[in-house]
């Protein structure tokens, strides 16, 4: 019986005290800075010299500048489209949808809208839901987008 407790006691203590660390709650609010990297496929339809319709599917990675925390090392998958006139997004601008999946497999769903054009754009992502620790997430994030066409 003594040998069982030698192995069981540390396991019980580990489970009792490690649980709050393992299942720590996501902060309810805050900010973070990050870098996003993406690559994808683009389909464009030229409409004369001044107009173009572009649809895209992109895959990428988010790196939280802190090297840890919210969405660090999350993969991204996004779909979107925009119409440009003379190099500037025409209304309704660039609109799309994105799913981020963190290393634990929990997901954040967002919509986005970007304003700008060939020279560069600014996007606003609005969180619309999630799974796991992100269930019920609200808020969003902003991102500066590079110019067009994307650099490889």
What is the secondary structure topology, with strand pairs?
Layout: H1 2-22, E1 34-47, E2 51-64, E3 74-85, E4 88-89, E5 94-101, E6 107-117, E7 120-130, E8 140-145
Describe the structure in your own words.
The chain is mainly beta and 152 residues long. The protein has one helix at residues 2-22, and strands spanning 34-47, 51-64, 74-85, 88-89, 94-101, 107-117, 120-130, 140-145. It has one domain. Strands 1, 2, 3, 4, 5, 6, 7 and 8 form an 8-stranded antiparallel sheet that branches. Strand 5 (94-101) and strand 6 form a beta hairpin. The longest helix has 21 residues, at 2-22. It is elongated.
Features:
152 residues, disordered N terminus
- How can the largest sheet be summarized? 8 strands, antiparallel
How much strand? Answer: over 45%
* Integer average pLDDT: 82
Task: Give the overall form.
Answer: elongated
What is the CA-atom radius of gyration, in angstroms? 21 Å
> How many discrete domains?
1
Helix content range: 10-25%
Secondary structure tally, helices: 1
- The first-to-last residue Cα distance is 65 Å
Secondary structural class: mainly beta
Q: Which regions contain 5 or more consecutive residues with pLDDT less than 50?
A: 1-24
Instruction: Give the ordered list of helices and strands.
Output: HEEEEEEEE
Q: State the total count of DSSP E strands.
A: 8
- Quaternary: single chain
